[in-house]
Amino acid sequence: MKMKQFGVIGLGRFGSSLARELTNNGFEVLGVDRDEEAVSEMSEVLTHAIVADSTDEETLRSIGIRNFDCVIVAIGDDIQASIMTAILLKDLGVEMVVAKALSVLHGKVLERLGVDRIIYPERDMGIRVAHQLVNPNLLDYIELSKDYTIAEISAPKCLNGKTLEELNPRAKYGCSVVAINKKDGVIIAPTATDVINERDVMVIIGTNKQIESFEEELVGS
Ligand code: ATP
């Protein structure tokens, strides 16, 4: 299979960590920034890093940007530059354009321009951190839909040594433990006799309400 090529435009904090991670995952990454310093900081890390202004159509053409499988616009503060870059990328025929938005309005404009995926890193991280602060045992979660979530919950001391039958989250709260991540391995689809130890990570699926009430019970006990 052909290796995916990514372009990352804007090597600020967000763009540079994204580009670094893609590189670490073995992908070819071209980083673009109009700031020389930002580029030189990343030049050792990325496959290619160039100083260029992404609002210049000729520049984008000469890079051959349309041949990239996915281009991420990681410009935030300069909304005009972000929007112009997104328009040019779509016009030039880049198949998958992802862009970072700083506000809902910024995101709506990008959406209208045909940007394929919009990310709100600051907003999403704020929401995530708030959830984790409110629920100290919550390690991470994925929203499956508006109502359903998969959550990773660290087992507090009060659960140490309890079997799933004793805990019985399905009967008590309606949510199910679909995996238990233990120090020495993961139990997928655990059964009633599986034992939970402190700091095991329980992977739970259910409605937001069910998971919340389970978490409240753990904090309260
Ligand atoms: P972060 O939070 O990721 O640090 P930011 O929103 O604070 O980002 P921005 O001002 O959005 O920072 O810029 C991110 C990077 O994008 C900067 O390094 C900036 O030089 C670069 N950049 C902005 N406009 C352009 C452009 N037209 N062409 C190329 N690079 C650009």
From TrEMBL:
Domain RCK N-terminal: 3-119
Domain RCK C-terminal: 136-220
PROSITE patterns: RCK_C, RCK_N
GO MF annotations in UniProt: monoatomic cation transmembrane transporter activity
A GO BP entry: potassium ion transport
Domain of life: Bacteria
InterPro entries: NAD(P)-bd_dom_sf, RCK_C, RCK_C_sf, RCK_N, Trk_Ktr_HKT_K-transport
Gene3D superfamilies (UniProt xref): NAD(P)-binding Rossmann-like Domain, Regulator of K+ conductance, C-terminal domain
Residues spanning the signal sequence: none
Name of the protein in question: TrkA family potassium uptake protein
Naturally occurring in which organism (per UniProt): Paenibacillus oceani
